[in-house]
Write a sequence for this structure.
């Protein structure tokens, strides 16, 4: 039994299966993660270690070198680079592209924990796998004219950040410019000498007085009561009543030798938004997270917080979802324009609205069925997959056009609909298979690329290949089955359209040109040579790049002050830059981070 006869006989089952795949495609498209770029692991791990404010030389010997020694033996490590600053070090580890980065991350964390005991007390170590989800996709600035920076920081640390972490798909919420509130004791040197005390004794007294510890339990009948010793002060002024020592039975309190001041913990960073002191929040998505859903969730939480705290201004200075929205809109427009032009062209040449709509129906069916394939492969909607969908619209419709046009030709010959369907489908099946597999074979090498180029171009190749293969299957099954369902039985006179007359005139003109070229072969060779030279010269002068230039509507200013400049002086100099940006009407908002080496 021929392919056409099989399709004609089982057309109901084919249409039903296609409808099921289209429904599954709607679900897959609505649940597929959306991001700006494909998920890429850069095979790099970053480590940031902080150890108070040690000098650079001591930080190098006490922090950087022990970490380098412990990490140099990690399996798969290719290069290890470090940058040491006052009280901190930053290490960049690069691994072979064949390494399992999750396993490498565990090895790195194990190595850092193994050497932690030899590092300075209180050392903080942050280990991070660098991939496309490691960078914030939403930036929020908190400012207030009624709250101090400490109060604003408390709100961010204890309320805003926990609320943002509850957004589905959020991976990390980071703060910049937030300050920890604390109390500083300023010791009086003369009082220390008078009471024969040193700084170590004062520190020990403060630590031992401000603590909570378990003191056992008290059993009474059927009850068990846990006992604790609570030495924490109820208010800051209670610190001044802490007994440091005794002299002749008289206690010496902290208030006699020190002055208590409310202050903020210094981390040598400052943040501002629109020229005003601010706390900046960066929200990153999970590798499988949806950038649009995360952005919507953050906006919802920010709206709730704005209503709860009307004295605080929340502004979003960066939102990657805007770029994703633009990309989705451009693909939607490309599909719509391509569909309209293709349908108009097909209708012009065939002059049969019913047959034209049958061919056009293959585009949404192919795209939605392709979404099922992409969802099964764990892919996401991003610039590469959306670009593959937009670029493949013409190729997808081409298969259906070939089937419909051949059926139309058989109808012009006066054949009955059923026999025309069987004959037209069987005639072109092998040719259609070869013409579709050819671009798939061309795209296949792109999916075999390695490292970062492969990570970017593999989704493009897979998307286009999936769409082409799905369009081939639908062109050989769905399109003939739908044609058989809507085409009236019997012989129907199909009128000739204006496209038929145009194609015949074009064919006659092409025949005359071809005969002349065959009689003057040297002219064809000369023209080909000229174009070859022009193409070679253009190729040599054509600019190259990894990805196209993309305008996100934002720009970054990097600034460096002379070595030794204080943070306050740097901020003062940058206030003039803030004023310029604030007075520029095209700038909607801006943020600044000073001292963070970004």
């Amino acid at each position: 039994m021929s392919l056409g006869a099989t399709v004609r006989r089982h057309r109901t089952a084919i249409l039903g299966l296609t409808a099921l795949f289209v429904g599954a495609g709607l679900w897959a498209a609505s649940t597929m993660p959306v991001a700006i770029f494909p998920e890429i692991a850069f095979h790099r791990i970053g480590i940031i270690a902080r150890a108070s404010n040690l000098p650079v030389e001591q930080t190098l010997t006490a922090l950087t070198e022990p970490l380098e020694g412990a990490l140099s033996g990690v399996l798969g490590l290719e290069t290890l680079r470090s940058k040491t600053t006052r009280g901190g070090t930053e290490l960049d580890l690069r691994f072979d592209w064949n390494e399992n980065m999750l396993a490498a991350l565990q090895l790195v964390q194990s190595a850092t924990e193994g050497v932690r005991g030899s590092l300075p007390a209180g050392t903080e170590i942050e280990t991070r796998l660098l991939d496309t989800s490691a960078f914030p996709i939403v930036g929020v600035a908190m400012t207030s004219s009624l709250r101090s920076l400490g109060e604003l920081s408390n709100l961010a640390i204890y309320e805003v950040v926990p609320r943002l972490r509850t957004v589905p798909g959020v991976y990390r919420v980071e703060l910049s410019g937030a300050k920890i509130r604390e109390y500083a004791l300023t010791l009086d040197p003369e009082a220390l000498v008078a009471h024969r005390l040193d700084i170590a004794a004062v520190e020990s007294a403060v630590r031992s007085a401000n603590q909570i510890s378990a003191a056992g339990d008290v059993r009474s009948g059927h009850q068990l009561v846990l006992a604790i010793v609570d030495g924490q002060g109820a208010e800051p002024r209670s610190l001044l009543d802490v007994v440091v020592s005794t002299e002749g039975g008289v206690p010496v309190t902290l208030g006699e030798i020190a002055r208590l001041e409310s202050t903020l913990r210094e981390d040598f960073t400052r943040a501002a938004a629109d020229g005003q002191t601010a706390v900046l929040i960066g929200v990153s998505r999970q590798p499988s997270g949806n950038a649009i859903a995360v952005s919507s969730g953050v906006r919802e939480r920010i709206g709730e917080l704005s209503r709860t705290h009307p004295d605080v201004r929340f502004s979003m200075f960066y939102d990657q979802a805007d770029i994703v929205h633009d990309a989705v809109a451009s693909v939607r427009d490309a599909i719509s324009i391509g569909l309209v032009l293709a349908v108009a062209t097909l209708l012009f040449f065939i002059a049969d609205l019913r047959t034209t709509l049958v061919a056009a129906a293959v585009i949404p069916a192919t795209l939605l069925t392709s979404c099922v394939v992409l969802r099964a492969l764990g892919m996401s909607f991003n610039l590469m997959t959306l670009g593959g969908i937009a670029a493949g619209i013409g190729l997808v419709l081409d298969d259906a056009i070939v089937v419909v046009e051949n059926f139309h030709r058989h109808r012009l010959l006066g054949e009955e609909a059923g026999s025309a369907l069987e004959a037209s489908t069987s005639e072109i099946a092998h040719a259609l298979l070869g013409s579709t597999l050819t671009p798939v074979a061309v795209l296949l090498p792109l999916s075999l690329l390695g490292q970062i180029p492969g990570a970017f171009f593999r989704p493009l190749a897979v998307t286009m290949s999936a769409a082409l293969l799905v369009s081939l299957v639908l062109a050989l099954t769905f399109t003939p089955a739908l044609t058989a369902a809507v085409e009236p039985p019997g012989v129907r006179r199909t009128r000739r359209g204006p496209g038929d007359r145009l194609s015949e005139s074009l064919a006659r003109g092409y025949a005359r040109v071809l005969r002349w070229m065959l009689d003057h072969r040297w002219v064809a060779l000369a023209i080909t040579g000229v174009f070859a030279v022009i193409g070679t010269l253009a190729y040599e002068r054509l600019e190259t790049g990894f990805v196209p230039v993309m305008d996100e509507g934002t720009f970054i200013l990097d600034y460096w002050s002379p070595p030794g400049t204080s943070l306050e002086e740097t901020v003062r100099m940058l206030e003039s830059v803030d004023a310029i940006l604030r007075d520029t009407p095209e700038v909607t908002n801006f943020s600044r981070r000073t001292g963070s080496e970004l």
User: Anything to note?
Assistant: The first helix runs from residue 3 to 9. The two ends are 69 Å apart (CA to CA).
